[in-house]
Amino acid sequence: MLTYVCNFITGGRLMNKADLVVAMAEEIGLTKKDAEKALDVILEKIQSALVSGDTVKLSGFGVFAVKGRKQREGTSPATGERILIPATRTVGFKPSKTLKEVVK
Asked: Which pTM value belongs to this model?
């Protein structure tokens, strides 16, 4: 399946959720409805783990982790005045060595 995803990327196409559901259904032999349900559960579990501050490691794929951004100064594009940008949390992704090699 990873090769399938890479073919979409190198071919210049964007693989959306519907494409991924179809690919999963064909690969595993599920109905599209069951494949979509499985994908929704996976994404929901990853999201809830990240919201809790946990790290999600998928061997052979990569690691999703919550990263903090410190408060910093910036410039308002509208007025040019200096503003304080508050600290935020964001999600980072680090691809595994395997994924990096496949995408080369």
From this structure: 0.73
